[in-house]
Amino acid sequence: EVQLVESGGGLVQAGGSLRLSCAASGFTFDDYAIGWFRQAPGKEREGVSCINSTDSTYYTNSVKGRFTISRDNAKNTMSLLMNSLEAEDTAVYYCAADRGDCMGPFEFWGQGTQVTVSS
Q1: Which end of the chain is less crowded, N or C, counting CB atoms within 10 A of the terminal residue's CB?
Q2: H or E element, residue 47
Q3: How far is CA 49 from CA 26, 59, 70, 118, 119, in A?
Q4: Dihedrals φ, ψ of 44, to 5°?
Q5: Pairing between strand 10-13 and 113-118?
Q6: Which of 119, 114, 117, 118 is nearest to 8 (CA)?
Q7: Contact 6, 37 (CB under 8 A)
Q8: Are 60 and 46 in contact (CB under 8 A)?
Q9: pLDDT by residue for the chain (119 residues), tens digit each?
């Protein structure tokens, strides 16, 4: 059974930091790109960051310089370090797996973790 399980969300003040983690099982993690998406209330889901199987990374413009994505293939986990958080970062964050190069479609999805940034 394929599983992606996010953790690390919570409530933080603006300017603070959080580290999200995504634990994967049930597929060959090394072969997949893993991405983070987020969805704020009343807004469409957006791609935040992605790391492919060769460790190339991608970030949406609004998080560049603040967020850092990384993966540990030995542990089948991926992390998103979020610094200098802003109220606009408040959303449910999802990790997802893409058999390709972060271009989608993303086959597997986690259930999400809530991030709330208070201003």
Answers
A1: N
A2: strand 46-51
A3: 22, 4, 10, 22, 23
A4: -80, 155
A5: parallel
A6: 114
A7: no
A8: yes
A9: 999 999 999 999 999 999 999 999 999 999 999 999 999 999 999 999 999 999 999 999 999 999 999 999 999 999 999 999 999 999 999 999 999 899 989 999 999 999 999 99
Helix, strand, or coil (residue 31) = helix
Task: Provide the pLDDT for residue 34.
Answer: 97
Q: Residue 39 is which amino acid?
A: Q
* Cα 43 to Cα 115: distance, rounded to the nearest angstrom: 15
Q: What share of the chain is helix, strand, coil (3-state, %, to 5)?
A: 10, 50, 40
Look up residue 108 and give its two tokens: 């597997």
The predicted structure's pLDDT at residue 10: 98
pLDDT for 104 equals 87
For the beta carbon of residue 64, count every other beta carbon within 10 angstroms. Answer: 10
